[in-house]
Amino acid sequence: MDTTQAGPQPAGERTVNPFVVVDGVDGFIAFLADVFGATERAEARTPDMFADDGTLIHAEVAIGDSLLMMVDRKRGWPFIPALTQVWVADPAATLRRATARGARVVTEVLPFYGGSDIARFQDPWGNLWWLFSPAADADASAQEWDEESWEAPSEPGPVYTTIVDALRDLEDPGVG
Asked: Please, which domain of life does this record's source organism belong to (predicted)?
């Protein structure tokens, strides 16, 4: 995939940008800043001028080279959890920061394909986050998927069961 080719988006923007609906954008932004070092794009902050409750109809944060957009959930809107993958240098440290801010660990740090690690947490807004760290050995991260030598596990392991359980047990955290 050629990522150097210019697309239809303006310079400095990303082609795909997730949009998250949360109860309390300001608290969510503070959480993302503490956990991932996110920075708000202040020029994007848009109060909902048709609501007199101080909610936002749009806000954006940068996390690394990515953009996450968000809106305050309105009464009557359904609970829609985001499922988001983030590459981090240290998933254990990221989990510690997240749990210190009220997140629940879904999957402790575990080895994953190609020598990388995986961990997952659910934030206080009900969103699920996949944390991936690069393989410690650059050669391990470059390994190709070898379908012929892969053996299916005889039973599901924690990488599988923890997310299946977390998704099955998702509940609306409630309008704040």
From this structure: Bacteria
